[in-house]
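Hi V.,

Quick status before I head out on leave. The structure for the redesign project is tokenized and pasted below; the design run finished overnight.
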């Protein structure tokens, strides 16, 4: 398979920041369309058609938040999505592909609309839990191992995610307000540029000086009605 690569990272992702590296985000800049859009969307379509159970998960009770997320994305695209044309029944993307609006399959529809993977985090007891996701481009984690689990379990076995950082991240999810999203980014070295890289959570990530840089622009925002948090991931892969 031909590698799907971007040529460069956005300027704001050029310098590493201490964990958790959170900064305010202009809501109008939430979702991105970059030079790899058409190729990444084609790969998403392939995964959604052939490996749906690996890339989509929705837990019982997540329906209201999932429905709100689809409408939230449609409203955002109507206001800020350059190159999108939205009608009641379909969406024409910037690459010219038309996506039917299937409200009976919100996460599947979202997977065909935007470059970002989208994870829903809802408060269950003391922690936010991953209740639904469309995750086509995992970076060394499996959706099946994380769905329905709280933040602390999701981040096992990330070495930097100690008890202190876990408290800070939970406070972040508790505190994010509608209309005031946050963002961060990471950067990892990989030997393989393939976008869909699930691994068992007991396997380590690749940390050596390897030929590909993989960086994720991660945003956190709160849906106003259900109060669910959306964790979005825009994946960049560059050859070194």
């Amino acid at each position: 398979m031909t590698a799907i690569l971007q040529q460069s990272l956005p300027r704001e992702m050029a310098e590493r920041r201490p964990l958790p590296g959170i900064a305010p985000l202009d809501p109008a800049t939430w979702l991105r369309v970059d030079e790899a859009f058409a190729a990444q969307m084609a790969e998403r379509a392939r995964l959604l058609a052939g490996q749906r159970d690996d890339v989509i998960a929705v837990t019982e009770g997540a329906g209201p938040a999932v429905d709100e997320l689809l409408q939230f994305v449609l409203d955002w695209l109507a206001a800020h999505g350059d190159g999108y044309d939205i009608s009641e029944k379909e969406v024409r993307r910037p690459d010219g592909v038309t996506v039917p609006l299937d409200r009976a399959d919100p996460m599947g529809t979202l997977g065909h609309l935007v470059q970002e993977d989208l994870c829903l985090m809802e408060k269950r007891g003391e922690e936010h839990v991953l209740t639904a996701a469309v995750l086509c481009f995992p970076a060394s984690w499996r959706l099946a191992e994380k769905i329905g689990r709280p933040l602390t379990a999701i981040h096992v076995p990330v070495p930097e995610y100690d008890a202190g950082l876990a408290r800070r991240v939970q406070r972040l999810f508790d505190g994010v307000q509608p209309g005031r999203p946050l963002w961060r980014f990471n950067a990892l070295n990989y030997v393989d540029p393939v976008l869909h890289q699930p691994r068992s959570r007991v396997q380590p990530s690749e940390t050596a000086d390897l030929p590909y840089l993989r960086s994720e622009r991660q945003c956190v925002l709160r849906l106003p009605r259900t109060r669910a948090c959306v964790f979005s991931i825009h994946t960049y892969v560059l050859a070194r």
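Above is the designed sequence. Residues 20-239 form one domain.

G. will cover questions while I'm gone.

Best,
W.
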